[in-house]
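Design a sequence for this backbone.
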């Protein structure tokens, strides 16, 4: 489904964002990307839809090269990939309905998009998607009247109407409280299990990665240093990924870390 073949990314300032990544993510997997700040998680995720262009190697989605795609091909590939980010990216002054409908824009040419000529099916899909994330009653609410958690669930609904088989989530719960975090993660689990969508999610929280992901990939300085399931992610492996400090922090700040469920 998603294949990285010897992928490296060197930013113009010389920083190596990714180093010789070789990995394949199969359809239906729920993959968490973990690692320290600056390890390359966002670079990894955003290179999949070429928001970040790589400098070496090739990335393929469903057999099609993202790296070599021309403008039109890239548009078609991006339609297959939903993106959920930490900042939700909603048009705040627009209704929930309009924000979710915008997930359909990739299916239309420019003029239809500008005029917002959506079909009856688009409106139906919007309703269904909002039901999936438990926000049916918010259809006509202005997005800036929603809580952060609700806004994130609207952005999930927008990715759902896009009908993309792949959903990339870049730290989608970073700004949410633990209870809302749970709801958003449960939504993602549901669409993974019931709709078979491939989820690739960047997480700072190891407990969340363990709880939800079927596979965990850890990055360090742009390279993969762990690739396995939760059971294989032992304390020893965590130390390799995060350094010794992770255990000192665990011992000294257990209340703090439990409160914001970072570790
Ligand atoms: N546009 C850019 N220009 C130069 N360097 C960059 C750019 N974006 C990221 N980097 C560098 O690339 C490396 C990887 O960054 P990236 O944002 O992918 O890490 P991350 O694991 O997602 O971090 P965080 O958890 O803080 O979001 C870092 O050293 C970062 O400073």
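Sequence:
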């Amino acid at each position: 489904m998603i294949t990285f073949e010897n992928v490296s990314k060197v930013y113009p300032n010389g920083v190596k964002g990714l180093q010789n990544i070789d990995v394949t993510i199969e359809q239906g997997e729920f993959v968490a990307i973990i690692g320290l700040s600056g390890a390359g998680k966002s670079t990894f995720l955003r290179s999949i839809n070429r928001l970040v262009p790589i400098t070496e190697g090739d990335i393929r989605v469903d057999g099609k090269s993202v790296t070599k795609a021309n403008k039109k091909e890239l548009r078609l590939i991006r339609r297959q990939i939903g993106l959920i980010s930490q900042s939700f990216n909603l048009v705040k002054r627009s209704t929930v309905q309009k924000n979710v409908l915008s997930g359909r824009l990739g299916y239309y040419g420019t003029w239809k998009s500008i005029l917002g000529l959506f079909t009856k099916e688009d409106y139906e899909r919007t309703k269904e998607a909002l039901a999936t994330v438990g926000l049916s009653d918010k259809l006509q609410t202005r997005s800036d009247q929603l809580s952060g958690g609700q806004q994130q669930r609207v952005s999930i609904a927008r990715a759902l109407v896009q009908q993309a088989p792949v959903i990339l989530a870049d730290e989608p719960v970073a700004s949410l409280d633990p209870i809302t975090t749970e709801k958003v993660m449960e939504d993602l689990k549901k669409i993974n299990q019931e709709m078979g969508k491939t989820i690739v999610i960047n997480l700072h929280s190891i407990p969340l990665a363990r709880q939800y992901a079927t596979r965990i990939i850890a990055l360090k300085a742009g390279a993969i240093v762990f690739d396995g399931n939760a059971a294989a992610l032992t304390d020893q492996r965590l130390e390799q990924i995060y350094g010794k400090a992770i255990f000192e922090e665990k011992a000294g700040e257990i209340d703090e870390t439990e409160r914001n469920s970072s570790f």
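The two ends are 30 Å apart (CA to CA).
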